[in-house]
Amino acid sequence: MPAVSPCRLRPLLHLGLLMSLSASPLFMSASWAEEGARRTYQVPAGSLGAALTRFAGLAGVSLSVDPALVSGRNSAGLTGEYGVQEGFARLLQGSGLQLQPVGEQAFTLTPVPDASSLQLPATSIMGATAADTDPVYAGGQVARAGSQGMLGEQDFMDSPFSVTSYTQQALKNQQARTLGDAVAADPSVRTTNPASGRFEQFTVRGFSLFNSDVSYGGLYGILPTYAIDMEIAERVDILKGPSAVLSGIAPRGSVGGGINIVPKRATDQPITELTASYASAGQFGQAIDIGRRFGEGQRFGVRFNGVRQSGDTEWDDQSVKRETGVLGLDWREDRMRLSLDVGHQYRRADAPQERVELAPGAKVPDASDIHHNFAQPWTYAQSKDSFGALRGEFDVNESLMVYAAYGARKGNYDFLRHGIQSTQSNGDFTLVPRTFRRDEDVQTATLGARQWFSTGAVNHTLNLSLNRFDMDFDNAGERYLRSIGNLYNPVDVAYPGRPNRFDTSTHTEDRFTSVALADTLGLFDDRLLVTLGARLQRVKVTSWSNGVRDEPVNDESATSPALGVVFKATEHVSLYANYVEGLTQGETAPTTANNADTVFAPYRSKQGEVGIKYDHGSFGLTASLFRIEQPAYQYDDQNNFKPNGKLRNQGLELNVFGEPLEGVRLLGGVMFLDSQQSQTTDGEFDGNRGTGSPVVNANLGAEWDIQGVEGLTLTARAIHTSSQYLDPANEQKIDGWERYDLGGRYAFKVGERPVTLRASVENVLNTTYWASAATSSDSAAGLTLSTPRTWLVSATVGF
Fold it and tell me: Which residues, in sequence order, are CB contacts of 669 under 8 Å at separation 6+?
């Protein structure tokens, strides 16, 4: 070990005194330190001395330490529920030191008798550790820690960003089938495409988020493009704001936020669960979840999840079939963690609904007068995705870890659909049949390193990340003679005959590369955390039309900075701020535009945010003010889709989660959004709101455990979205809407087998409304119709 300078030792000489002070009853209740008592802790990674100081103070115990023992050593920290000695053991893992009692609630440290065999901390960047180590917040609906890209997983109180992580337990209890169901609890997220449609799409803070930009264990582009089944998810992390510095370049350029799906892993306890489900119109489903660990120390884990669901939906002629299977393998040694996930997803929707595009100046149709499916019965959307990801972490020594990940996906998509275009005030629309075929081939890789060290009284967590993303895709299709349809009185149109137009066959290659460096500095015993980082990015997009390369080739490079600050004002309150820039892939012109499939140049997005987080222990509150800027895209008079000015969204978010009263859980919040266009051509739309940007989104979900009936829980949820504009001129507006859901579950045992029965009703009042007015990934701005009342029931049996 290198010599330690006196300036570095000086802060450590006071270690014992600091620990004694932090253990004072002025700061901590002595009951927390009672033998066998467990409580929730959050101790950030950093120097071992600082970690032990924080834990001893939080636990209310006294710890005396020889500074020479901890000098130069680091700890991975801990987050979760622990007893006192259990927590110390976790912090000391791999240090060659052990806890020695010296009196009542008093301890010291001594070297492990055989210190030559070090057990290094099982830190996790890529999610390769067992799932049951993830700390869950009170109430079980959200996790304390969430993915922060290259920064790894961080406790929400230590993060300079707004992150919400929904647990597998919450997804199960919600009976979430796809990602659209999972994000329904978040006030900053809205679904902007019809349920049971061709694909799912979302907005975060008023900006579009595509499934292509949903990462899988930190890797972009691996998950299916058009819908993502939730049976594969251990956790769903939603990070608000641009994340290019943290995670690399999002394939479709989402800037309002990012979503990460954490893969399932075999837990220390065996898992065997069978679930049977039914949805109101006749959809039957079966799912299986099996997990086992094998070998010495349960080093090898296997987790398999499979689901099959099919049947009619609530709309005429509409049916959905989905099949998914994912196998997760992992291996954990003292210094190494490896994992492999392979999966396949098949999905087919018959008569999927489309967005409704209005003619200029047309009155917005009355959604409550629509009682039947206006999609033709011969339309369909079929998608097949095969994907996989290999990850590994290796502890080089006590303070340095390196990691790598590689992922790939092949996707095949086949649609026979029709647009709902130029809809008139009386409900008449132009019905444009077309076929669309797309093939995608994705490969992505990440290399990185993380090192913990100290310079004087400052702790450092240094992160280096290199990212590469390659995607090749081909589009082709045909169009057929147009006809007329009506929203209020749908009429079956004959199956299309011979095409009258062949779409241009296009081939596109996306090549995104980047390297990022970030340092998180911990000052004042890590009460102040400052993250400084930057990412050098290059975006190269090359496309061909009918075999001829388009010009120019988009090839842009930029360096994007990031700054994050967290100040832990008290044990329960954190103040945070961040500023992030990112080079983002430009939009692609929708297929309804005259310049369809044109890929626009990358642009730089910017976000500033400040906020406060409160952790009571049983419930949490967060508040944030944010501002995000990006280019605006619109149609011109010749029906060309192109950039036009800037769009600035700023707002206030308030969120609540946890169990404020025993047996009563809350999850929800509100977002107030101020959206404004600027620098448009001739100032035509300056000062107008952006399309699809409501002033207020509000969600509140509640669960109530019924006393006297063990295992019985009632649930309720209310969702509100205010009015939105469909056009940049702000002349076509949809009304605000509310949706109410009710449900319940009953957990009991049959012999030794746990059984959970779940039932819920979504959209209890069966209200029909326009849920969104936003731009699609393949069409102009359009209206999304709500989903009718839906009954969901399921039974899960454990073996």
Answer: 186, 187, 188, 622, 653, 654, 655, 656, 698, 699, 700
